[in-house]
From TrEMBL:
Keywords: Heme, Iron, Metal-binding, Monooxygenase, Oxidoreductase. This is Cytochrome P450. Heme binds at residue 450. It comes from Neohortaea acidophila. Its cofactor is heme.
Amino acid sequence: MPFAFLALSISILLLFLTAIIHRLYLHPLSHIPGPRLAALTYYYQAYYDIYPHRGQFLFHTAALHARYGPIIRIGPNEIHINDIAFYPDVYPTGPQRRRDKSAEWFWFAGLDEFTGRSAFATLEHGLHRVRRGAFAGFFSRGKVLELQPRIRAKVEVLRESLLRREGTGEVVDLRDACGALTLEVITEYCFGAPISVLDSDDYAKVYNEMLRSSTQIHPIGRAFPMVTRALLRLAESFMEGNEGFDVNKQKQKEVDRLTKAAYDDARRTDKPDEEKWTTAIHEIVADEALPPEEKTLKRIMNDAYVFVGAGMETTGRTLAVTLYHILANPEIHKRLMEELRGVIPSSSAPMPDVSALEKLPFLTAVLTEGIRMSHGTAGRLARVAPGEDLNYHGINIPRGTTMSQSSYLIHTNPVIFPAPLEFHPERFMGDGAAEAHKSLVAFGRGTRMCVGMNLAWAELYLTIAMLLTSVEMELWETTERDATVAMEFFLGTLPSDSNGIRVKIVGRL
Ligand code: HEM
């Protein structure tokens, strides 16, 4: 017995030693610089993202790049690059240069309980193309312009609800108000019917908080994929009664209901096509390239959850952060109002449509700078080149390596964006603007680039124009810190101890 125990211990020790030597000296990534501990174990990332730190690995990556250079090894099979000139290689367009998503990063791929069969979470390049192709047209610029009344109607509801608070002294957290708006917009836009939250007194704060924090599961899922997947499958039975879980469940049920109603309508054969509703679900059901097994209600619900998740928090936070910077900078506010008054002389004047607002240069620059500083998806977008070795200035990146860049690091690079932590819309106007635009990667690049960017832009134009020309608001007990991303859980995250981006409604314009 003691001998068997000794033999087992020695074998385990030898296995460990072999793994250490392999990862440090023999691994195909051993020539890429970076901390030794990161090359040995993914728990190096967990130390910064889960415990004792939270959501800090992105910022640590910046320090690692400063020390080791633009390409670093951040995990046994993972590298990170910080170079805008290399974006087209990591995130190419077109079918020739296949890019899969990384199974190490997308730990939830295939898991129905967590959007795992959506286009977003699809690992394989070819299957992703077919899944995304089924709904991409519904988010095209033409479709967004056609359906903009759906957006505008929701902004009007928000405007009226803010105006009802005029002079009451009530404090509104713009993170919640804008989150409620974007939740209603995305559900109205995709399903032709909203999840109604704008009329709730606190703009559905619990919902908002739940969505803001839901991405915090990602570092845990990456560090402990099997356990997290198993727990998510079992969650129903032991999480009942937990407020966050119940709210999430309630939202999921509402998305299920909206998706099912649209799905049933799309499949009705007794209704002429012109009488069917116009929804993203109808597009998917009608798509001819998508095989039948991809058109089950359960599979389509995966895409529906992503539409709601992806469409709400990113755009809501961008609106709130942009409004903060406008209200905190009287010069910018004044210049913007002068431009807006040229096309909206009074709050009773008809609201120009999105294509007219897009022609306003200062508004466009303010929104672009808002997108840059909100860091929607701040963190790394991990890819794998399955059939191609890449070469970064003589450094080989073997096929199969998980590689990524992070928009946060590009958007805060002082060489590309001087004084990067300051709000300067002018950087997107005049000389240098073309360069700045080329380096704006908030919506990602390549075949997996954000499908909802036209919708996001339309929401930004309509909301900022309509609110600023009719509602007079003042910041209340809010500082720049409250509007500054301090953590990263794939999405940029505002400080957890902040009381919000708060305003009081002081008048109507
Ligand atoms: C400011 C707002 C937004 C930002 C910054 C943003 C950013 C991004 C980024 C960077 C990606 C790529 C993710 C990856 O590579 O893994 C992405 C994907 C996606 N976004 Fe957005 N997004 C925004 C708004 C929206 C909206 C309004 C929708 C509405 C439906 C949306 C739907 C999606 C979807 C479905 C994908 C997955 C696309 C695919 O995998 O082919 N996003 N978004």
